[in-house]
Every structure is written in structure tokens, then in C-alpha cells.
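Ticket #4471: structure export looks truncated?
Reporter: QA, pipeline team
Priority: medium

Steps to reproduce: submit the single chain below to the structure queue and open the exported record.
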Amino acid sequence: MAKMVDSDDEGDEMEVGQEWESDDDDDDEEESDDEFGQKLPPLHIYVKRVLDKYPEGGQILKELLQNADDAGASEIIFLYDKTQHPTKHMWSQSLKKFNGQALYVYNNATFKDSDWKNIQHPEQSGKHDDPTKVGRFGLGFISVYHLTDMPCIFSGRHVGFFDPHEHYFTKDPATGTIEKGKRGKKWRISKALLQPGLKDQFSPYLNPIFKCNQSTFKKGSYKGTIFRFPLRTEANSKISRVVYNETRVQSLFQSFQSDAEISLLFLKNIESVSVYEKATQDEPKVVFKVEISQEHRAALREKRSSFLRNCQRSSTDGLSECQANTISQTASSVRDKTKQKTTDTGYLIVNVLKRFGLSQGMQDLMKDTDLKQLPWVGLAMKIRPVVGTSGRMFCFLPLPESESSHLPVHVHGYFGLGDNRRSIKWPDRESEHDNAARWNVGLVEEVFPDAYVELIKLAIKCDLPASTVYKLWPEVGNLTGAWKGGVKCLISKLGELPVLYTEAKGGSWKHPKDVFIDTEKKDLLRKVLLKKDYPIAHLPKNVLEALRWGGIQIKVVTPALVRKVVRGDRLEWLDREEKIELLKYILRDRQFTDMVNIHLLPLQDGNFIPFTSNGETIYIPNSKVPRYLFPGMDKSLSADDCPEVLTSAEAQKYTQLHSLTVDVVPSLLKECLPEEWRKGEGIVTWTPGLNGQPESDWLDKLWNWLQQENISLHSFVSLPLIQICPSPGLQQLQTTGKRVRKKTKDFVDRARKKTKDFVDKPYQLARLETNRLIYQKNIASPTPAQLSKSVCIFLESLGAVVVENDLPEFIAQHPKIDSFIRTADGKE
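Actual output as written to the record:
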């Protein structure tokens, strides 16, 4: 033995193995025989410390629900009973304060001998005997001490009372025997418990809701389990100072109810959860109830049983199991004690137990006898009445909302949890070697992707709309921590499966590599490609981003693809607006050389013709050379809504398009005017708007354009452009000071209706020629000279054209007109 020395005492040090010298040999000899060892604190101190880890609230009821599920129960009932029971006939009058208001928890599973043992040893729960049990009466049961000082259990052949204060059962009132440290008492169920002396202590268990009556005591056994938790009414408990009154209980129920709908999703056995309240003399009234619908129970029960049987197999047999369910739940709640609301919800649920294909690290962790976890992950998606878009984390029951995966589905895993069963362990600097934390990462990265794939496959198998299936896909931008690795693996797996929907050929699910994805979600592209039986898929943002983030190769709809699809088709099944929109789309990449034989070139006449590189020229009007100059030429002019990109030099280089320029106007006019105007000689008759002749405002606009653009008139020689005989209707309009050229077509149309002569009497047009046009009178002279009638006839016989009336103002105002018309005095 080493001698302890003071460092200041030189030379007193002793080697290891030397005997400790004591100043008092007698004392040393006496102490060496004393009992030695660490002492445990009283039970109430232990319980209090556990409660510090387990917060009160709805979590208390969740722990009891979990225990019932582990026991194999299919039904659980919570009852808040405000009844004050008689206290005259009690085992001890010290127990009468526990005969008042209480919380009852019933389930239809019966305690086994192992359960009675486990519930008395909270640090040694039944989990290690069965890996499918989360923690049968482990530390979680201790949480009931938040609300009671004496938990009671009525099940099978016994009824037991816990006394963590080690106070109420230390003295037997019948014998006077005192047994210190006694922490509870258990009775065998019999009719004697309802006899005088004890009946008031056990009568609180007589309740029709739990199917417990006097015959139960006579039979000496009860099929099921009733927990009774007398509520703490005084703040003098050594365990907790919290007093549970009606307000506190209602808050407890509300907290539990907020998760009640989803609480059944991943449980192994529970099918119904009910919550009741009972006033002193009233019948119990339902607060809320959640249950699996009867039509789904049998199938669900069988699938659950099969799955659990595989879970209980040896981990070395390499089995993998997938359980897929579609369940319907009915949730009923009563608000304001009068109005009942019932909702029906539907879920898709999958559970996957993976033992094949796990990494060596996960296989090693499965053999960890301290960990004892299963490679089990479940997923659930709400599909009715509305599709769920926000998921919660579960370890059989919902974890706090702060524990989030940021996924659109509920995720259950056989996770390693913290001591309070409310948080998932993840590796960090302090716990990077924690096996539970490492296990959780393995679950997310190796088992979770397989479960997610199965859920999506189930949704597709159930013929859910593609829009609903796509809501299952994660929002990859929200992922954090280990979930990134798990989702990355998931997307990789989905990239090899038919998980993208196309309506082509009646609709089907395709592999990502086999569809064209419309990233712009244009209805027109969908219509065109489906018409051509191309497998187009419209994907929401979350799916498209997930595919790209996961590195999945995809094919997107492009202008080049659409050009290929529509080439050679006259597209008569599209309306004009759709054709213009489609043309703008396929021109987006400016690949004009690829436009050949696409029937989308819009003409002014309303038709569409194919693009060519060497066909008949189609002219593009512009502000400098407007389309109104060319009557009857609509088949050779592009439409007003023709995309502007086609006016570029590059577009015109590879197509038949050509922008109009001033120099081509004369030649085009000679092509577009009526044939008798172009080829004949002398005066022509003009009946505006009839027989393919120009409208009434055409000549006015043409002369104004010639003047504005300062165009030489010599290029237009021989064209009938001089109006020499207007109709009376037009004269009337001019004499009122209203110039025709300033009127719109609507105005002229109205004038036609008012003035019959406007239509009935056509115009006379003379050709624009030099030395052939003569005014009959010189209107520029102060005393206008006028040729005689005989002179006019003589000149006309020589081929001259005598203008008897005043020229229209729009012609007379042209600065170069005098070069073509001689006045009456012979001058130009």
C-alpha cells in the first residue's frame, strides 16, 4: 500500500506496496472491519431526479401510450375522473387523500409476471428481452410522478400501489407491524377487497368504461390493465411541488390531443385512443377519440404482426422486410362540451426493416448488446382530406417539433434517443464516438432511403395523382446534417426508377432518362408534345431541384426539340394565338437555319406558311415602309404580330423573309395593283374596296408617304396615281374642310352609308406620266385662264389627259407634282 505523505516532509515518501502507517493503530484496526460502499438515496430523491429529465405535459400520456403498445394492447382509454370516493373503509386512513380526483389509463392488455417485475425495476426495463419494445415500464413510467404520489395498477390477478415516499405502507394497521422502507403494497384481486374494511379503497376501479365490475373481483382476475393516478392536491410532496387541478389536467389533454391524430401511425398494436372526462355524478363524456377505421383494422393487424415477427428474428438471418399500408383514421373531438367534430384522415405508411446490404459499421452496431436497436425506419404521408406537406420525427410516437427533418413526410426510426426520450442523438465533437449517435446516422443514410423509395412506389401503386406523389419529394434546400446524405442516396435510387409521370399515350410512369422535362411548365408545349406522343413531364420545383442536386441526368424540353417535333406539320390543331406563342418559343435560341419546313410563318392574310431558305420572298413591313402602301399583297407580307427577332439580318439570311425598303416600293406596287392598272394605258376606273381594288384611303396615304419620305415620283411613272374625277360624295366631304386623308377607315365607311354616290360613282385615275397631263385652267393665275372645250377635245385626241377639276389636296400639295402636269398657259 502506498503511504500518503505531505510534500513538505522530506524523506517521508513510501513506495507503492508499503503499509499505510496510522497515528492511531486502534482506530485503524477498528475501521478496517466497517461496512463500506456507496449508498443509494431514498426513492423519492431518485424519482425527483428522473422527473427533471422528463418534462410534464402531453409527454406523460405518450409514455403510457407507448407502454400499452409494447404490451400488445389495441385500445387505450384516458379518463379524468373528478369523483370524490368514500374513505371510510380503507386499509389505512392515511390513504384517504388518494381517493379523490384521479387520472385513469386503461388498456386491453393484461400484466404478465414479467411486467409486474419490470415495473418495479425502472432501470431494468423489458426492452432488452424484446428488441421491438421501446422501453416497457422503463424510466418513462416514472414521468407519472409529475401528477401523482401513488400510482396504482389493477391488472390480471393483482392490484398494486406504489409508495415512493416509503411512508404509507410501513405500518400494517391490522397487526401494528412496522416495516421501514416499504415502497408499496400488492393485493390479490378477490371479492374480499369489496368487503367492509377495504371496499372504499378498491371501489374506484369499478367503472363500466373499463368493463370492471363486482364480478371481476369475484372471479379474482381482470382482463386488461387499469392505471389509477390520484392527482396531487397539495404542494408538500417530496417528489414534486406541482399541484394537478382541473385546469392542469385539461392542459395535459390539450397537449396530448395536438399530436393525437398522428400518434397511431407507427405504433405496433394500438388501434384506438380515447380521452374522457367524468364529473362527480355524471356519465363519462368523450373529449376526443382517434381510431383506425374498422375497414382497415384486420389488414393492418395482419401486416403489423408479420412485420413484428420478422423484427424478432435473429439479426444474423439477413432478412429484410417492407410493410406498406393505406389506413384511414377517424378523429372525433368535443368542443365547448356541446359540439362534436369528426374528421376522416387517410395515410400511406411504410415500414422497412433492413438487414441485407448494410455497411459493416451498421452490422457491428447491431451486435452491440448495450444498444439493442433495429435497422427499422417508417414513413407516413397524409393523403386525405388534404395532402400533408410538413412532416414530424417519430420514435414510434411523435417527438417534439423542435426535432425536425424538414421533410414533407413523417419519419419514424428506431433512433437512439437522449435520456428524456425527446431528442435524437447526433454526432458532434463530444459524441462522435457515441454508438447511439453513429447508429442514427446509419439509419438515415442506409435504411431511410429504402423506406422513402417504398413510400413513393406505394403512392404510385395507389394511383394517386402525380401532383400528390411529387409532394412526397424533399425540398433539398431545407436539408441539414445527416439528412443530406440520406436524401442524396434517395435521389440516386429514384433516378433508376419509373417515378416521373407523363400523360403521353394514355399516361404512365417513366424513368427520368425516358422523359422530357418541361422546366417552364408551358401548357402549350405540353399540348404540342403530347399531340406528338412525346413523353413530356411537368415537374414541380422541388422535384426538379432534387434531380439536379442528386446529379440525375435529365432531358429538358428545348426549342430544338420542339422544332424537330413540329417540322412538316401544318399545325391546324393550334389556333392563331397558340401558333404565335409557339413560334416565339422555338425562335428563342435564334437557330434560324433550323426553321426550314416549320409551318409557323404568319402572313398578313391570316395564314401560316412554312419557313424556307429559297422560296418566294415574304416582306416585313416597318415604320419607314408601312404595309398600307401595298393593297392586295397580304399573302406576301408578314403579319403584324410576327416576332421581332425575325427582322434581324441573321434571320433574313437563312429564311425567305426580307425587310421592306424604299427602293422596292415601286416594283412591289406594280405587282400588287390590279392587273389592268399595271398593264393598260390611259385612264383607269377605281371602285374602292371592290373587285380587289385598293380601299378609299389608300391613295391619300400613298401620296402623303411619298411627300414625307421625299420619294422621287419618276420611279412611279405609268402607275395610275392621279385622281382626276372624284365622286360627288368625296367633293362634298372636301368642301366641308374635312380632308379625306386625315380620316380613318371607319370615317370613310360611315361616309359611304350617308353618301350613295361615294360608292356608286367610281374615281377616275390618270397615270403618272410626263407631258401628258394638262390642267384645263390655270388656277394659279389671278384671273384664271381656261382652255376651251374644243381645245380640250383636241388635246385628248393627241393622247393628252386634261384635268378638268381641281386635284385632291393630298396630290396637289406634293412639291414635285408640277413636273408632271402642265397648266392651261402651257407652263409646267
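Status: closed, not a bug. The export was complete when the record was re-opened. Leaving a note from the reviewer for reference: The CA atoms of residues 26 and 32 lie 10 Å apart.
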